[in-house]
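Ticket #4471: structure export looks truncated?
Reporter: QA, pipeline team
Priority: medium

Steps to reproduce: submit the single chain below to the structure queue and open the exported record.
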Amino acid sequence: MLNQAKLYQLHTMLKMLYCAYREGTLTEAAYLESVKPIDDAIDKLEMAILRDSLVWQESFLQHTLKPKC
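Actual output as written to the record:
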């Protein structure tokens, strides 16, 4: 639950930066520089959320090598 709240907060920050860029109060270079760390944090957080899900665990288990007896 905490991860999802943080993810929502990061997406809100991205939206605010995009709106500032579209309004012209933020240059493209400044926008791209500001978005990069937020985007990286979102990627890490999404992977953390996914790792906790059963879907990822089942998918991962299908692709691991199984020992031969």
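Status: closed, not a bug. The export was complete when the record was re-opened. Leaving a note from the reviewer for reference: DSSP finds three helices and no strands in the chain.
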